[in-house]
Predict the 3D structure of the following.
Amino acid sequence: GTGSIEIDAMNGGLGLLLQGCLGTSAGPTQQGATTAYLQTYATSDAAPGVSYTIQILRPLLETGSSAFTYHGCVITGWSLTQSPSGLLTMTFDFDFEDVDIVTGAGTPAYPADTTPFDWTDCVVTLDPDGTPETLDALDLSLNVDLGLKTDRYYLRGSELKKEPVRNAVPMYEGSVAIDFTGTTRYTEWTSATVVDIELKWTGAEIESPYNDEIAIRMRAVNWTDAAPVVSLSDTPRQTLPFQIMHDGTNAAITLTYQTADSAV
């Protein structure tokens, strides 16, 4: 089967899902002698080797509930969105091996004292290591398809399929909308300029000088459109869809997650 989960990205507990989103994971690593810990996730030649068991309690018509327990759940893709006046939201797409309705309901353990990242925490920066330029983004999105083959059924005396494996080039795409204030982005598009982009959400201080933080670094990005749009009822704007490439050296995407979590 398949399914998806949409959540608000919180400053705690998110690492459990992030470790199944990209190819490699490291940490949590303590920062100095503080209570801040850094987790790092990055694309690689291999698909993520993480699977989950997910349980959903579905209410019955009048009273009670029924527990559905999904086994062998693998993330096949994920996305995030951010808009003004909103929270950072993430959606995780799953493929799973099977489901049972006989496992008893578990007792959830929720991360304590967590808060979501919101639009006021977000900054979009071009060329963060060179001459940084902050984009006044109107909204943004990022979509990842991990390129997994999920229909791995065999004549082996079982109806259960084997674990998904990568059988296609992963696709990393997104979009940023901005006001049309000049032709710089248009020129980058028409000349196929490679752009270095960082998306960063910075929350409350954990312990000086470290804050809660989610940062996504994409070192080789191509705009796939940059044509401005004008109308009589709104300000002129550009929607900048992009595709994330591999520069031959660095990971296509590096995601860092800094919180007070000392374990995933």
Remarks:
- The two ends are 26 Å apart (CA to CA).
- The chain has a mean pLDDT of 95.
